[in-house]
Amino acid sequence: MKFLPILRPAAGLTSCRPSRHISHLLCLVAYLSCVTSLNIPPMTPNLRSAFSATRSSSVLGASQRAVTFDRLLLNIGEDFNPDTGTFRCRLPGAYYFAFTVGKFPKKILSVMLVKNGLEVQAMAYDGYRNHGRKMQSQNIMISLKPMDTVYLLLQENQDYAIYSNIGPYITFSGYLVYPDSTSSVGYLNNHLSPPDLHLPGCPPFTDTQYDWKRRRRIGEEPRSAFSVARTTSVLGESKGRREREALTFDVEYVNIGGHFNKTSGHFTCYFPGAYYFAFTVGKHPRRAVSVKLMTGRGEVRAMVFDEDLSRRREMQSQSLMLSLKRGDSVWLYSQQDDGFAVYSNQGRYTTFSGFLVYPDFHQYMGMDRTFP
């Protein structure tokens, strides 16, 4: 058997250090592979998650906690389990959830949308125990991380129930509106160092298609979304009040782009396009409710109204799409006269959400792209 001769350095030459050369070679390979591949955005089919399920039978409060479903209409990504009623996040990002539940005759309706088994995000409620059947709806957008769970929770008490039949009255839907591009880029770039954070022996990251300060890809499709809630009621105080004040909010679930100001209650359009808006408000006992979705200086686009002055608490929902230009504002106005009110508490009866569905690229391409 012959062995290869061991090559020794000639006199006067410094021997190479394999570990150092290998380290530099690995860094170079990582650098070149990332420069050539990271300019390609991730495949959109892998960034999809959506479900819609229904239930065709009633649920009594003492029988179970989580609302389960017997018909699955859609389950892109297989992230929803109808047998447990649980959605488990696979892709981090901003998700929109909507549910409708039927009120059982002579029972109280109280269903909460819960995150990770503990955090109540929003609820649907009707405390009027009459013979009639009716329905209540709620919707919000929340930010989720991988393995976060979301499901509908029914009160474990015989006084509570939700109604359905083959109609069905009970539905639950959700979908990923905006995947978290920050986390995906961070994962793909884990071999390179961002600017001002150079790792020893590795070249700095110089992808011209990624803006590290704004944590987004240059040329990435514009994103704008918000979802907020109130935890306190608003009571009308005076008659003949002419100044219209926007309904404000104290809980912020999502505010992608920072285009909603919860202190002023105004959403200001930055990216022109078609937007979807939805809101739900609680009715205060012994008060009427009148809430309008407004644009600009007070143009009424949609509203909810209930003039029943009974003691019961219930909810009203509304939704629509609007075409907006940059600088347009959208807000909710609650009638401020005596006898009107909006009800909410820690259960978050009152919510307001909106997001960009289709950007108007004709206007977007010609506008100043400087972020606010």
UniProtKB/TrEMBL annotation:
Keyword presence, ATP-binding: no
Molecular function as annotated in GO: cytokine activity
Family annotation (InterPro entries): C1q_dom, Cerebellin_Synaptic_Org, Tumour_necrosis_fac-like_dom
PANTHER family xref list: CEREBELLIN-RELATED, COMPLEMENT C1Q TUMOR NECROSIS FACTOR-RELATED PROTEIN 4
One cellular-component annotation, GO: extracellular space
Domain C1q: 44-183, 219-363
Record protein name field: Complement C1q tumor necrosis factor-related protein 4
UniProt keyword annotations, A-Z: Cytokine, Repeat, Secreted, Signal
The keyword Secreted belongs to this UniProt entry's keyword annotation: yes
Location of this chain's protein in the cell: Secreted
SUBUNIT field: Homomultimer. Forms trimers, hexamers and high molecular weight oligomers.
Major location (coarse): secreted
Extent of the signal sequence: 1-37
